[in-house]
Amino acid sequence: MTRKPSAAFTLIEMLVVISIIVVLASFAVPAVISGLTKGQMVGTLNNARQLFLAGQQMALDGATNSDPNFGWPGDLSSAAAGAPAGGGEISTLLEYCNRLAQNDYLKSGDLQKILNAPGTSCSVTGESDGSVTVVGRPSLKVYKVQEVDASNTIFAVTNNYTYNTVLDNKLAPYGDKGFIVMRKGGDASTYKKNQATATNYGNDPRKFESAVGKLPSQADGTAAAGDGDKLLTNPQ
Questions:
Q1: Quick check: 80 pLDDT over 60?
Q2: 221 inside domain
């Protein structure tokens, strides 16, 4: 009798197939992870834009009605929010969020979504008087932008980015995978880690400011590293 050949794989054939799958996976996994991160960053960019649009509308209403309770973060006075006279400008992200929430530009649920991204844990709770409580590390930093600031002035960035500073892979959200910048003019962008400093723009501060933006009250062409003195303090 003629013996029929076996239809099963031999051990060598199985090992070859497994090796091919491993090689293909080694190429595919980074691409999948990169695509997932890009999608998440687009979501965070949209959140930053939502916060900006609420702030922009409040600033427009304040300018229209000459009301000191409504304005850009750097134009708001804590005294105008009910604090004792001489309270000075607002200094915390919580104060700014409360101004937006109490004047009905954003709800606590909106802020809960806006202030979170992969790796962050920020809790926003609405109170009976319309104010909010913010606890934990938010996904965004917000700067004290003023009406007089230029359109390329930075309104907000993701919390893993310090201006003109190399990204830290331990900081959420996104580590050194990239960062987001929202500017006063209304345009927002995602950036890669090799776009984080002026070094990547031929050490030309003006090119860096043109691409990324400038901090509030910072002189043109300086691009000093760090958050500066116009950052609203984040909850911890």
A1: no
A2: no
